[in-house]
Write a structure and sequence with these properties.
Layout (H helix, E strand, L loop, with lengths): L1 H10 L3 H28 L1 H4 L5 E6 L7 E2 L2 H6 L4 E9 L16 E4 L4 H4 L3 E2 L2 H9 L3 E5 H7 L6 E6 L4 E13 L9 E4 H11 L6 E2 L1 E6 L5 H11 L7 E5 H10 L2 H32 L1 H9 L4 H37 L11 H28 L2 H6 L3
Parallel strand pairs: 4-9, 6-8
Antiparallel strand pairs: 1-11, 1-12, 2-10, 3-4, 3-11, 5-8, 6-9, 7-8
Helix pairs in contact: 1-13, 2-11, 2-13, 2-14, 11-13, 11-14, 13-14
Length: 388
């Protein structure tokens, strides 16, 4: 307890220096937490993947479509419980310069899609209304809040992949089964897209973007994937079938350079914390060289000396870390509000908090190591002659 009181008094000796060090550590920890949250948000789709779903897409690239006829053929493969499909629509809603106006617009198989994706929870009334009307759509609850959409509203979209002026009527709002579900998407009837394409661009109709396979057991996945891909190996539209997790991971890998850079920067931030803290602790220890010599003369043990230096380092580091973590949550909230649909799942994960605490504690110990060894090795006579 006596050593703790001395640690508190030592930290208050140069209050401005201590406050600046705490502020520097807090800013660094906040930056670290925010950057790690961006990385984890990028992997949100991968983590939310179902264990019993597979994706079949074109073998050349995701952008090439597949014939609608594949659906019934894939459904006959042993181990496949249900098959549905979807098609990326794209398009432009309002001003493209505002990230809030970007949200996924996907044409789906209205009959089976929500059975294969039970995490998208839609009421029976909304689903029935959606299926009755060709240009109806179902949107996520978060998207509805961000854009102030209500049932019955008209959503105009200017097509790019599928040119023309499109209008969708909101007939339902889905909610996520849990916090990891993306609630920023718009789903509309693929039949509406196919019928319009047949009229305006004959030859493009009768195709879908990708198939979603619900399998009986994850153990069947390798066999199902091989069977599907072998069946269309020599066709005009070859396929690549993989687990939903692998499919989502392929999109993340496209941004691997960005993610690697962000992870590297987050580790550099830890080094910055170490340098800022080490500078303060070294200066404090040098100023108190004579005091440590006096304490040794009075009978204080090496453990007491190490406790004084290490305790001050831990106190400053943990205070700065606590302030930084406290600032991380509102910073993450502001970031998520600025990009509501680009990062649909943007929350500070417990692993990020644990990592930040571990990093701060480790740097506190490392920063105190050199001045502690120097103080312990210094002779009493040399210490008493020192001028701080």
């Amino acid at each position: 307890m006596f050593v703790l009181r001395l640690v508190l008094k030592n930290a208050r000796r140069h209050r401005l220096r201590t406050l600046l060090t705490v502020a520097g550590i807090a800013i660094a920890v906040m930056s670290f937490g925010l950057m790690r949250t961006v990385v984890t948000a990028w992997y949100a789709g991968v983590e939310a993947s179902a264990a019993n779903r597979m994706i079949t897409r074109h073998s050349v690239s995701f952008i090439f479509p597949l014939p609608l006829a594949y659906r019934d053929q894939i459904a006959t493969i042993p181990g496949v419980e249900r098959v549905t499909f979807a098609n990326w629509f794209g398009g432009t809603y309002k001003d493209t310069k505002d990230w809030k106006n970007f949200f996924p617009r996907i044409g789906i198989d209205a009959d089976a899609f929500f059975d294969v994706y039970p995490e998208y929870q839609v009421s029976a009334e909304d689903l029935a209304a959606f299926r009755r009307e060709r240009n109806a759509c179902i949107i996520g609850a978060k998207l509805a809040r961000e854009q102030n959409f209500k049932r019955g509203d008209l959503i105009p979209v200017e097509g790019d992949i599928f040119p023309g002026h499109w209008e969708f009527v909101v007939r339902g709002i889905y909610t996520g089964r849990d916090a990891t579900v993306d609630e920023t998407q718009m789903f509309f009837q693929w039949k509406y897209l196919d019928e319009m394409v047949a009229q305006t661009q004959p030859g493009r109709d009768g195709h879908v973007g990708w198939y979603v396979l619900q399998v009986d057991s994850p153990a069947d996945m390798p066999r199902v994937a091989k069977t599907v891909d072998d069946r269309y190996l020599n066709s005009m539209a070859g396929t690549k079938t993989e687990t939903e997790r692998e499919f989502q991971q392929s999109f993340v890998s496209m941004s691997s350079a960005i993610l690697t850079s962000m992870e590297t920067i987050s580790y550099v931030i830890i080094g910055i914390i170490l340098l800022v803290l080490a500078n303060t602790i070294v200066m404090s220890a040098r100023e108190r060289t004579r005091e440590y010599a006096v304490l040794k003369t009075l009978g204080f043990s090496p453990a007491h000396i190490a406790g004084l230096i290490g305790g001050e380092s831990l106190l400053i580091a943990l205070t700065g870390g606590a302030v930084g973590l406290g600032l991380t949550f509102p910073a993450a909230g502001a970031f998520a509000k600025a990009f509501p649909t680009f990062f649909p799942i943007f929350t500070v994960q417990p692993v990020t908090i644990a990592f930040a605490i571990a990093a701060v504690t480790t740097t506190a110990v490392a920063a105190a190591l050199f001045p502690t060894l120097r103080a312990l090795r210094s002779r009493i006579a040399d210490g008493l002659r020192a001028v701080g």
